[in-house]
Every structure is written in structure tokens, then in C-alpha cells.
Amino acid sequence: MIKHLLVFSFLLSAAAAQAQTSKPGGIKSSAAKAHTPAITATTAKKPAKLISTWGIFVGDSLPKNEIVKLLDSSLIVRDEKNVKYPVISFAFTLEQHEPYLNDTTGQPSLYKDYTGDNFKQSKMTATWVNGLKANLDKGDILYFDEILIQHPNGKVYKAPALKFTVR
């Protein structure tokens, strides 16, 4: 009985060792990966630290007239080496505040209204620009989120979001 148990355990360990060493055609062992040539560092790496800007601003509290001037501007994304990357899309959200009188408490409160859109280019459409020029008020907040850039290696990366408050 012990003899059969020893033979069975030997066969089982040999099968397990064989299963670990033989890989399907597409998967390489770590030793084989070490000997493959590396892709050049400039094309394979993610861009260094990305910096998003709207005009020359990285997000701030700006006067209404300055923001109105920026509405026609494109979003710009650069890395630490000042290399520009094309923006392929972004999500824009406008947060507007409207005061109202709370019926229950009798206290004044602020109502927040959010409107937004996704853009497949680096700047807002003319419809949005004209609407914002007409309706932008002090205290409104403009958010630029989900800023996507196209890297020269073909990969798409997400850049930091921007937030602007109207003074």
C-alpha cells in the first residue's frame, strides 16, 4: 500500500512540475521575458507629470471678464518638459448658484444647478460659448474633467482636471 502511495505521489509531483514549465505559445516565462529587447524609453513610457491649462491658467478664481475671454480658448496639456499633447476630449460641467427662501425654515439658501456636456475636441462649441457669455454670473464654477490626451505612442492618457470660479 505504501509503495502504491509513493508511486502515485511521485507521478503527481512530476505532472505538476511538467505543467508549470510548459506554457502555451503566447505566454512566456519570466526568464524568456528578460531576454526580449526593450522598447525605446521615449515611446513606451507614460508622459511625465501632466499639467492641464485653459489659456495660461491652471485653475483659479478669475473675474468674469477674464473667463469670458477664455471661453474661445482650447485646453492645453503639457508635461514637465513642456511637450504639448493634443486634447481629444473632455467633460465640462457648470455649477450655478441661485439664492432662494426655504419655505420650511424661512432661511435663505443656495440652490445649485449643474449643466454640462462632453466634447470630442479641445475647446467648447460655439453654442456653449455663446450661452456661457450670456449666463455666467459671480459664484459660478466651471469644471473641466476627464481630459483625455493622445500620446505619440498611440495610447490615450487622462490629464488632471481643472476648476475655475467666477469672481
Description of the structure:
By secondary structure, the protein is α+β, with helices and mostly antiparallel strands. The protein has one domain (50-166). The protein has five helices and nine strands; from the N terminus they run H-H-H-E-E-H-E-E-E-E-H-E-E-E. It has helices spanning 2-21, 30-34, 41-44, 64-70, 126-135, and strands spanning 51-54, 61-62, 75-78, 84-85, 87-101, 108-119, 141-150, 156-159, 162-166. The strands form two sheets. Strands 2, 5, 6, 7, 8 and 9 form a six-stranded mixed beta sheet that branches. The chain has a three-stranded antiparallel beta sheet with strand order 1-3-4, with no helix packed on it. A hairpin with a 5-residue loop joins strand 7 (141-150) and strand 8. Mean pLDDT is 82; it is low at 25-43.
Give the tags:
167 residues; 3-stranded antiparallel beta sheet; 5 helices; 28% helix
Beta strand count: 9
Overall morphology: extended
- Which structural class should the secondary elements be placed in? alpha+beta
Q: Distance between the terminal alpha carbons, to the nearest Å?
A: 88 Å
Q: Number of DSSP helices?
A: 5
Unreliable stretches covering 5 or more consecutive residues: 25-43
What about the largest sheet? 6 strands, mixed
State the domain count.
1
Secondary structure: helix percent: 25-40%
Roughly what fraction of the amino acids lie in strands?
25-35%
Spatial extent as radius of gyration? 28 Å
* H/E topology pattern: HHHEEHEEEEHEEE
Overall mean confidence score, pLDDT: 82
